Amino acid sequence: MRHNKKFNHLGRTASHRSAMLANMASSLIKSEHKRITTTLAKAKALKKYVEPLITRSKEDTTNSRRVVFRYLQDKESVKVLFGEVAAKVGNRPGGYTRIIKLGTRQGDAAEMAFIELVDFDENMAKTPKAAAKKTRRAGRKAKAVEATEVAETAEAPKAEEATAE
Length: 165
Prior knowledge:
Blueprint (H helix, E strand, L loop, with lengths): L13 H17 L4 E5 H18 L4 H11 L2 H14 L8 E8 L6 E7 L4 H5 L2 H4 L7 H25 L1
Antiparallel strand pairs: 1-3, 2-3
Helix pairs in contact: 1-2, 1-4, 3-4
């Protein structure tokens, strides 16, 4: 019986799985865009593997560096994790990675996905949440109010320029 055995073995032995996850975590941390493409199952397993390491990196002590090095086995990855990554995620309480599904792979129809570090994606950070959310239920009055607000914001810089001169 498989009671309370939720861990995905990914069809590998324990040593192969730990080596693969360590290599994938190092690739994710050291990559230029902090993003790798892999299968969905591996991405989900990597998320559970790398998020505790990122949490550990927020406290830069000798012990935490040794614990992280035990998992990653790569000095350069540890250096980047405790330097660049820890500085960006310092105030985030969790949820350091994002998985984006890409569809299926041509050869074997495996589900593919991006896994990326959340704070390093400039495209997602630039989109304002207020502009992204639009409702279709606005009536004529709401549209008129929006139009006057847009006109006021367009006139505000012109008024500032006139007072500066």
